[in-house]
């Protein structure tokens, strides 16, 4: 499986990239996945040109393709003016509107104060719900005082576990149990054209609740 991390940090080193790396490591430790990082800072000029000429540059096109082909996505943005950064939003504005449909996404953000933590629920979650992604229940916010304090590692592990579970559920191979596949109660899992089993989202959430 392919896990793509989109980091919108601007500084070097970046707390946004640090959080992204920790989330990726925790997720990859729970399910076999090849991790690829997309640094939006390096794509800023090509993103701007895409808005003016309608065509992505070589690096931007490769990043958009990686996100589209990912089995799971981790997105992390710094908070500016009580919302996600303009660079972060611009990247997803140039992404194909259908690219994230049904894709598991873990949302996260960093900021200088804990009072910005609601950005996850009033800005990021609505954005990815609009793009028809499957957003994991636990979102992760890291304020300056959270680094090295209790709570952040636990939130990272919980969110990573939820993402890994969704990635595994959405990519699991079909099971052959000898039945003819007759879906009498409407709840049986069905194999798609890609040869994988689509697990109903309600069943995935129920599985998370028992962890």
Characterization of this structure:
There is one protein chain. The protein is an alpha/beta fold and 211 residues long. The chain has 2 domains: 169 residues, Flavodoxin domain (Rossmann fold); 37 residues, no CATH class. Helices cover 41% and strands 19% of the residues. The chain has 7 helices and 9 strands; from the N terminus they run E-H-E-H-H-E-E-H-E-H-E-E-H-E-E-H. The strands form 2 sheets. Strands 1, 2, 3, 4, 5, 6 and 7 form a 7-stranded mixed β-sheet that branches. A hairpin with a 2-residue loop joins strand 3 and strand 4. Helix 1 packs across helix 6 and helix 2 crosses helix 4. The chain is globular, with a radius of gyration of 18 Å. The protein starts with a strand and ends with a helix. About 11% of the residues have low confidence. This is Oxidoreductase. It comes from Streptomyces asoensis. Keywords: Flavoprotein, FMN, Oxidoreductase.
């Amino acid at each position: 499986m392919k896990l793509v991390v989109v980091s919108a940090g601007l500084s070097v080193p970046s707390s946004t990239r640090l959080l992204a790396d920790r989330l990726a490591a925790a997720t990859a430790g729970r399910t076999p996945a090849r991790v690829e990082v997309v640094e939006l800072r390096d794509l800023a000029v090509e993103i701007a040109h895409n808005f003016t000429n309608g065509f992505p540059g070589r690096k931007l096109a490769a990043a958009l393709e990686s996100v589209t082909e990912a089995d799971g996505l981790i997105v992390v943005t710094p908070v500016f003016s009580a919302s996600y950064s303009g660079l972060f939003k611009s990247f997803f504005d140039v992404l194909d509107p259908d690219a994230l449909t049904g894709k598991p996404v873990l949302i996260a953000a960093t900021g200088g104060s804990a009072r910005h933590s609601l950005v996850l629920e009033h800005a990021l979650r609505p954005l990815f719900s609009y793009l028809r992604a499957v957003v994991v229940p636990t979102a992760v916010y890291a304020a300056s005082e959270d680094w090295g304090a209790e709570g952040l590692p636990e939130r990272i592990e919980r969110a990573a576990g939820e993402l890994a579970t969704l990635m595994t559920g959405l990519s699991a191979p079909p099971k052959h149990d000898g039945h003819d596949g007759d879906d009498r109660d409407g709840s049986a899992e069905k194999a798609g054209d890609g040869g994988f089993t689509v697990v109903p989202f309600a069943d995935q959430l129920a599985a998370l609740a028992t962890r």
